[in-house]
Amino acid sequence: MSPVEQLLRDFVCLCESSDIPYAIVGGWAVRAYGIPRPTYDVDVTISIEREDLSKFFDSIDALGYDVDDVYRNGWTDSVAGMPLVKAKTFVDGRTLTGDIFLAENKFQLPMMSRRRSANVDNLTAQVISAEDVVLMKLVADRPRDRADVFDIFFMLGQLDEDYLRHWAERLGVSDKLERALSEASEST
Questions:
Q1: How many Cβ atoms are within 10 Å of 4's Cβ, its own excluded?
Q2: Sign of the CA dihedral 32, 35, 38, 44?
Q3: Using an 8 Å Cβ cutoff, are 95 and 109 in contact?
Q4: What is the rounded CA–CA span in Å between residue 125 and residue 132?
Q5: Are strands 42-46 and 22-25 parallel, antiparallel or unpaired?
Q6: CB 57 within 8 A of CB 74
Q7: What backbone phi and psi angles, to 5 degrees, belong to 101?
Q8: CA–CA distance from 97 to each of 108, 114, 147 (Å)?
Q9: How far apart are CA 129 and CA 72, in angstroms?
Q10: pTM of the model
Q11: pLDDT (tens digit per residue) in 81-119
Q12: DSSP E strands: which ranges in 26-163?
């Protein structure tokens, strides 16, 4: 098992054994929808009270991962208004990162309610819906993310466009969604 696969398993097991609601997002979520592609980190979203983060960080440390003091002292990073903290370890001379988003905003809360159980590389885990993967990828908007969106539309076909348009407008990515939908329809 690769170190990144071990990190994924460790995060899933930690959340499940601690009764912390979680969902896999990012590249691993893309893979859960049958789209094989490499990924070199782990992204999860968790529902946890801020006052419980210290205990969660201690559990991460016990697994051999490091959480920087800035996160322990209450600071969070942010991606498109979604707070996150990071855990890391060093393997074979490189840093392996786990991005842990905190489900606190108006998009993440319904996203967590739509998560489902899926098989991710022989691991049964909670994964965000395909629509939410598309939305998260549109927000990130890197070349790899745009390719993931195209692949999801290609592999899965019809998604819930009302849901997509509703949240795309609120996330400020309506133009990106419409472009992706147009490209997907042209390829069929």
A1: 19
A2: negative
A3: no
A4: 16
A5: antiparallel
A6: no
A7: -80, 140
A8: 21, 25, 22
A9: 30
A10: 0.91
A11: 899 999 998 888 888 899 999 999 999 999 999 999 998
A12: 42-46, 66-67, 77-79, 82-91, 94-102, 116-119, 124-127
